Amino acid sequence: MTEDSEWQKVWDARMKGLEAAFGRSDKTHLHATIPFDLGIDLGGSPDVVSFSGFTNGKLYVTTDLIGCTDQKPNSQGNYELAVAHQGDEDWGVDIICRLAYYTLENVLEDGETMDIAEATPDGSTIAALLFKRIASLKFQGKPANVICCIGITKPELNLCFKKGSNALLKEFPKDYILTEMNRESHV
Asked: Rounded to two decimals, what is the model's pTM?
């Protein structure tokens, strides 16, 4: 089997799992100029696909982590990263692409938070990310999942510290996963 046909086989398996979870992907896929496997030092980046029918915004999901033997799996196996926006923002896509390399050395688990205030655009009300598992799936017979990175405000982060992320999720509108750069706090 050639390297190209092996890549296609893995891509097809990933897409099958992701589309089973989120519906048909959008036609345009963001393929990295320099592949993820070449590493961040060479400018590598994961491919990203988008889904317009899953939420009231657009969901962007990495496609190089499930099945990646270098990734440190979370409690549910290998995982892809996702972010949802109302519009065609590139900030969130950039964050999940950078976090993809982070997952090679660190585990991101459902319900955890990460302070990102320094990485947000000027004027943003987002202070941290809340990681929420939004899908569980199978990849080549093994469990896998998708962790959504939800931008949260400082008061929301404080609530997570005091009462846990489940308390914050109860304050959000039903099925809320959007990262809106300038929004009022839900608490």
From this structure: 0.94
